[in-house]
Amino acid sequence: MTSTIESAVDARTYAAYSRPLWWRVVMTREFAMIVLLGLVYLIARGGVENFDSPLTLYYLFLDITPILLIALPMTLVIITGEIDLSVASVMGLSSVLVGIFHAQLGLSIPLAAVLALVAGLVCGAFNGFLVGYVGLPSLAVTIGSLALFRGIAVGLLGTEAITDFPDRWTDLVKERFVEGPSFWSGFPLVLAVVLVLIVVFVLLLHFTPFGRGVFEIGLNDQAAAFSGVDVARTKLTLFMLTGVVSALAGIYFALRYGSARGDNAEFLELQVIAAVLLGGVSIFGGRGALHGVIAGVLLIGVLSSALRLESISSNVINIVIGVLLVLSVISSSLLGWVSGLRRGSTPSVPPSNPPDPGTSPGNTGTSSASS
Amino acid sequence: MKLHTRRIASLASVTLIAGLGLAACGDDSGSGSDSGGSGDSASITMLPKNLGNPYFDASTTGAETAAGEFGGELEEVGPETATPDSQVSFINTAAQQGVDSLIVSANDPTAICDALNEARDAGVKVVTFDSDTDTECRDIFVNQADAAGIAKAQVDLIAEQIGDKGKIAILSAAANATNQNAWIKLMEEDLAANHPNIELVDTVYGDDDDQKSFDQTSALLSRNPDLAGIVSPTTVGIAAAARYLSSSEYKGKVALTGLGTPDQMRAYIKDGTVTEFALWNPTDLGYLSAYVANALASEEITGEEGDTFEAGDLGEYTVGADGEVLLGEPFVFNAENIDDFSF
Question: Using alpha carbons only, what angle is made at residue B201 by residues B200 and B204, rounded to the nearest 5 degrees?
Answer without folding.
Answer: 100
